[in-house]
Design goal:
Strand content: 15-25%
Low-confidence stretches: 263-276
Number of strands: 20
Mean pLDDT: 90
Helix content: 25-40%
Largest sheet: 8 strands, antiparallel
Structural class: alpha+beta
Strand order of the largest sheet: 16-13-15-14-18-19-17-20
Radius of gyration: 23 Å
Length: 448
């Protein structure tokens, strides 16, 4: 075995040369300051030109007892736990492209390193789309799957993992495998979703495609309190309007209801404002419902929803500025709350009470999945206390609170996952697919 623990050693240079032989002179190098995973620096970066080359990288790692962590665009590289170590960062940028599919097949095979927006632009030329709208700008299809990331359209269509038809991936030993083609295969494919590259290196995914909707409108209602949101969502879902998305934005400054401004409401309803982006009163949040379908059907449902929302409702043909984005910024402690929709207001109140102040909350309120942000400068013991209080409330409501990313001090001090069901099964899958813990070791719950 070649010793390769120091990048200045002969062994390290040998690994670099071997990676260059596999990937090409411009596609293998020693890692730089930006090549890290949740704060853990890598030692080499390899950008293989196809599945065969990626398999060779994995076999090289196995021969020299090196770990491998896949990376797409790096938009969520700080999500989850830091791996124990990162020897080779396997960049999937060249595992890209859209495979040819017969017309009417209803699916598309996409290389894992393909940016989602490039896939959508290509499909749009034929009047199709993936029903995926992940919030991370520049995210690759593989990265979306590896993080099980979803945007507003998850309300109707589910996550990317729900839309999987099949997967091609590399096991830890470099063997190319396929999952799909039946219930058992599909279950295996979906096990790799959300695994952060710790169960296999995604090569390509076959996903369902659909026709681009002929019409889309966003109906907005300003909101001030979580309880008000609870009542409105119940009314929306009971009205059977078949929404494509039901999204909530509660900025940190959202508080008590302000005095009603009848003139502003009248201006918002004026015919000259039809189709324009809605304006929300200062200090208010927004509940926004996206309706998609045929023009006349969408117009009829929008009228019904606007009537349900009352005089404050506005209808627009463009999304609000915050649509398909997270409420947290780099350096914040990013949280995801998952709770039955009937208890979403309790979860938001619990978070506010524990933090002692309103915190920004945004996400798929119609499914009870929202994100929140705590300031990056907040002391780690304070974050830990907030998490404990919120998780105590959610536990009794079959909900949970995950820490997606956090500053290093917070990451070391808190449990990122909280109570998790299925850990024993995850451990068994890891042992089966990666018995030597070569792929992103420690990235999964339980230190797997």
């Amino acid at each position: 075995m070649v010793p390769a623990r120091s990048t200045g050693s002969p062994g390290a240079l040998d690994i670099a040369h071997r990676l260059t032989d596999i990937c090409g002179p411009r596609f293998a190098r020693f890692a730089g300051p930006a090549d890290e995973v949740a704060g853990r620096p890598a030692r080499w970066v390899a950008v293989p030109g196809g599945p065969h080359a990626a398999a060779q990288v994995l076999r090289l790692a196995a021969r020299h007892d090196l770990t491998v962590v896949p990376r797409g665009a790096g938009t969520k590289i700080d999500w989850g736990a830091a791996p124990e170590r990162v020897d080779i960062m396997l960049d999937t940028g060249r595992l890209a492209g859209i495979g040819h599919q017969p017309p009417g097949r209803g699916t598309a095979e996409v290389g894992a390193g393909t940016p989602l927006r490039a896939v959508q632009a290509t499909l749009e030329r034929t009047g199709q789309r993936l029903a995926l709208d992940a919030p991370s700008p520049g995210a690759t299809v593989g990265g979306v799957l590896a993080a099980d990331e979803a945007g507003p359209l998850r309300h109707r269509h589910g996550t990317a993992c729900d839309q999987l038809v099949g997967l091609r991936y590399l096991a830890a030993d470099g063997e190319l495998a396929e999952a799909g083609g039946g219930a058992a295969g599909l279950a295996q494919a979906r096990m790799l979703c959300g695994s952060e590259g710790a169960l296999g290196v995604l090569v390509s995914a076959t996903l369902r495609v659909q026709a681009v909707p002929a019409s889309r409108v966003w109906v907005t209602r300003p909101v001030w309190t979580p309880l008000e949101v609870h009542d409105l969502i119940r009314a929306v879902l009971a009205a059977r309007l078949d929404p494509a998305a039901v999204e909530l934005d509660l900025p940190a400054g959202t508080g008590s209801r302000q005095r009603r401004d009848r003139r502003a409401e009248a201006m918002a309803r004026h015919p000259s404002m039809t189709g324009r982006a809605p304006t929300v009163p200062a200090g208010a949040g927004s509940l926004v419902v996206l309706l998609e379908g045929g023009p006349s059907d969408v117009a009829e449902r929008a009228d019904r929803l606007a009537s349900l929302f009352g005089a404050r409702a506005t209808v627009a043909r463009s999304a609000p500025p915050w649509w398909r984005s997270y409420p947290f910024a780099p350096g914040d402690t990013a949280l995801r709350l998952e709770v039955p929709i009937t208890d979403l207001h309790a979860a938001v109140y619990a978070l506010r009470d524990a933090a002692g102040t309103p915190v920004p909350v945004r996400g798929s309120a119609g499914l009870g999945v929202v994100h929140a942000a705590l300031p990056g400068a907040m002391p780690s013991d304070r974050v830990a206390a907030i998490l404990a209080a919120v998780r105590g409330v959610l536990l009794a409501r079959q909900g949970r609170c995950l820490v997606l990313s956090a500053p290093p001090a917070v990451r070391r001090a808190v449990d990122l996952w909280g109570e998790l069901a299925g850990l024993a099964r995850l451990r068994a899958v890891k042992q089966h697919l990666d018995p030597t813990h070569r792929l992103a070791p420690g990235r999964l719950p339980g230190g797997l």
